[in-house]
Amino acid sequence: MSRAVVGEFATAEALLDALETARRQDRAVLDAFSPYPLPEADRAMAPDWALVRVWAAGGAIAAAVFAYAIQWWSAARAYPLNTGQRPLNSWPVYLLTVFEVAVLAAAVVGAAVFLLKAGLPRLNHPAFEIPGFERATQDRFFLALGAAGHEAVGSTGLAEFLRGQGALATHEVEL
User: Fold this and answer.
1) Are β-strands 3-9 and 28-33 bridged in parallel, bridged antiparallel, or unpaired?
2) Does the CA dihedral 104-55-37-142 come out positive or negative?
3) Mean pLDDT on 157-175
4) Where does 28-85 have alpha helices with state H?
5) Which of helix, strand or coil describes residue 2?
6) In 3-state terms, what secondary structure has residue 141?
7) What is the pLDDT of residue 1?
C-alpha cells in the first residue's frame, strides 16, 4: 500500500495533459480511471512486464536443476542399479522430466508474479472510498499520483500540482 493523491478531471484531454506533464516532471503516476478506454493513458503508464519473464525464467531454471539433481541422486547415489550396462548418470533419460518440470515451474512462477505485480486479488479498491468516484464510470476522469523521492504525499505539493493542471478536486488515499 502506498499513499497517493487522486485528482478529479472533467475531460479526458485535461487528464491526458496532466498525465503527460506529470511524466515529464518525473512524478510517480500510479493509475488513471476513466469511463472509457484511453489508449494514450495506457501507453503512458505501460508497466514493465519484463520482471515477469525474468522471474519465470529463473523459476524454470531452478526447477530444472532441482529435477535433474533429484533424478541423478536417486539413480547414481541412493539406488545405484546397473541395468543394461548403461552408466549410472544416464542424463538422456532425465531430460523429459526436467523439461516438463521447468515448463510447469515457469507457468506457476509467471502467473504468481503477474498476480502480485497487478495487485490481484483485490476485492475492494481503496479508490472506491473517494467521494464522487462512482462518476469515473460516467463522466469524470481520475489521476492518481504518488510521492516522488523529494516530496511527501501528505504535503500539498501533489495536490497543488493536480489543481494547477485543472483538477476539480483532489483527495488523499491509500492505494
Assistant:
1) unpaired
2) positive
3) 89
4) 39-44, 50-72
5) coil
6) strand
7) 59
| pLDDT digits 0-9 by tens, 106-157 | 999 999 999 998 888 888 888 888 999 999 999 999 999 987 655 555 556 8
**pTM exceeds 0.85, yes or no:** no
Residue whose C-alpha is closest to residue 130's, from 146, 139, 148, 142: 142
The total of structural domains in the chain comes to: 2
Angle of helix 50-72 versus helix 91-118 axis, rounded to 10: 150
Let me know whether 10 and 24 are in one domain: yes
**DSSP label of 143:** E
- Return the C-alpha cell found at 98: 526436467
Q: Which residues pair with 154 in a beta bridge?
A: none
- Burial string for 65-88 (b: 16+ CB within 10 Å, else e) reads eebbeebbeebeeeeeeeeeeeee
C-alpha cell at 36: 472509457
One domain, residues 73 and 93? yes
Q: Are 54 and 113 in the same domain?
A: yes
Which percentage of the chain shows pLDDT scores above 70?
Answer: 94
CATH of the domain at 27: 3.30.70
Residue 31 identity: D
Q: Report yes or no: 8 and 132 within 8 Å, Cβ to Cβ.
A: yes
Rounded Cα distance between 1 and 119, Å, is 10
Which cell numbers in the block locate residue 29? 503516476
